[in-house]
């Protein structure tokens, strides 16, 4: 995927309405920080950085840096995850002229913070010289023709976590295609076991499945955005899971990793979950599950699409009001790319998949007792990280779009088809773009 410009990302070029939004008239950032000069710290002054993140025990990672860099001290402050209140807290802080130096921001949310002039362009401080330390697909999601707006912190390549003994009850092994998955699911239901759950209130999972099938919902153009959420790849996925839900092959009664999910998994009523690499730490919370789980590549869409997909993934981004963006960049690069930083993030924070192509972290090179002695990170997730859709683009109102799609999916419980839910959501999302003064048009296949 060729990189595109900030102007393309934000759909500028629409006249006064869009330009008003982009210049900050209705946003937390009143002007773009990236045109302002920077002020270096005074000689001998200890630079103090704050980092807002929903990672527990992140201070233990920062303390390693602090011990080695006495001139730059990092304080980690825990906040709720972005969707649970962290992002509103960041926006409020930006509007008040404050906030942290660094914040954990999901890759899919970077364009939304760009929309409000909330992020520092790190290319001003030499971010590009660190590009080869990171996976190229991830780097593309934070970099644009005219800037770099975050440092990849982790990602979420996908695979299938499963209970071999439950699969064996249905005479099955890990399915390699979604067609095989449906056949195994049918056999499991005859034994009162679900193969997986399908969340109706979290559209991000469906998005990842469509992305794997080859969808590309949004494309930046010179005059705004083109959208196609009813393309053949997406409709294929929607029709597939319409039938899976209608045939009771999956349950919609609980969400992944909810109390209901853990209860079903521990009782042997749920055989597997196709999820991101970070799911392993959560699955280890299944009561009595040690030695009963394994990991396999996620099913593919026959000969189409990609071997894996992405679910989640964060950045360490420097917010607009930081007084020390250069030092913030240096810490973010150390934390996300050095072996010491990666190992500490895994050990203390259970971070998602490493953003570096050549080092997955020492803890992930060992066999897992919980996952039946597998070295699944090297055998499953290393290839998965290289088998994702490289053409996928995040757009300026991703989180709002997911909320719209989730609201539509809830109608599935009352009989509406997912294919119709997606089509309806697309219209609402286009209206939301226009409400923000952004250009959007329907792309025809």
From TrEMBL:
Keyword annotations from UniProtKB, A to Z: Cell membrane, Lipoprotein, Membrane, Palmitate, Signal, Sugar transport, Transport
PROSITE patterns linked: PROKAR_LIPOPROTEIN (PS51257), TAT (PS51318)
Record lineage: Bacteria, Bacillati, Actinomycetota, Actinomycetes, Micrococcales
* Pfam family, any one: SBP_bac_1
Question: What species is this protein from?
Answer: Spelaeicoccus albus
What protein name does the entry list?
Multiple sugar transport system substrate-binding protein
InterPro entries membership? Bact_solute-bd_prot1, SBP, TAT_signal
Keyword flag Lipoprotein: yes
The record's annotation in PANTHER family points to: ARABINOSE-BINDING PROTEIN-RELATED, POLYGALACTURONAN_RHAMNOGALACTURONAN-BINDING PROTEIN YTCQ
Tell me if Transmembrane is a UniProt keyword of this record. no
